[in-house]
């Protein structure tokens, strides 16, 4: 099945928004963008770079601009769908009865294309993820300072393995058992899976 058929299927699947998504698709097809399917949805790229996408949801449909943060958005149409999570991505959301204004939409798409050509890109920062410490582990650190210090010296990856090992246990008794098992390992500076790494 080629890309065009896949996009057609995606639009058919969103019965509620079929006409609207088809109209938006026809606007993208008037541009220099390449139609692809990524993450199961229609996506439009320029020289392999993500520019925009279409999506249908339960109560709305939308255009995604992958570097939408750089769009002027003079008409105030764009929203950050996940504030605090997405930095560059912006969404133009349409609800039932909202007009599709071809000239305006094309203006936004063309601006996104120009921004892509100019290399405007906000890359996600690959920063260290904070390790979520489960309550039982936190309590134990308060009681056992040496354990807390040893845990701090571990790499973030090893810290995460231990934290998840405790958090994933369903029962308190299992959590406690696991804690007893890992305490000496942490104090020795070992990782949870170290013994398997040299096999």
UniProtKB/TrEMBL annotation:
Segments forming domain YdhG-like: 17-113
Protein origin, superkingdom: Bacteria
Gene3D superfamilies the record matches: 3.90.1150.200
Protein name: YdhG-like domain-containing protein
Organism: Marixanthomonas spongiae
């Amino acid at each position: 099945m080629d890309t065009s058929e896949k996009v057609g299927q995606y639009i058919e699947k969103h019965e509620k928004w079929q006409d609207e998504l088809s109209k938006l698709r026809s606007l993208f097809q008037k541009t220099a963008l390449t139609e692809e399917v990524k993450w199961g949805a229609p996506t439009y790229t320029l020289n392999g770079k993500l520019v925009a996408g279409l999506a249908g949801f339960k109560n709305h449909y939308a255009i995604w601009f992958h570097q939408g943060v750089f769009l002027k958005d003079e008409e105030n149409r764009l929203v950050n769908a996940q504030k605090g999570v997405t930095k560059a991505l912006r969404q133009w959301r349409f609800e039932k009865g909202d007009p599709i204004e071809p000239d305006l939409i094309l203006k936004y798409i063309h601006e996104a294309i120009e921004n892509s050509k100019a290399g405007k890109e906000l890359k996600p920062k690959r920063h260290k993820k904070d390790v979520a410490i489960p309550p039982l582990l936190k309590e134990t650190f308060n009681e056992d300072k040496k354990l807390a210090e040893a845990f701090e010296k571990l790499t973030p990856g090893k810290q995460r393995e231990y934290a998840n090992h405790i958090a994933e246990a369903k029962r308190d008794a299992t959590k406690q058992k696991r804690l007893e098992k890992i305490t000496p390992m942490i104090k020795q500076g070992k990782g949870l899976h170290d013994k398997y790494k040299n096999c």
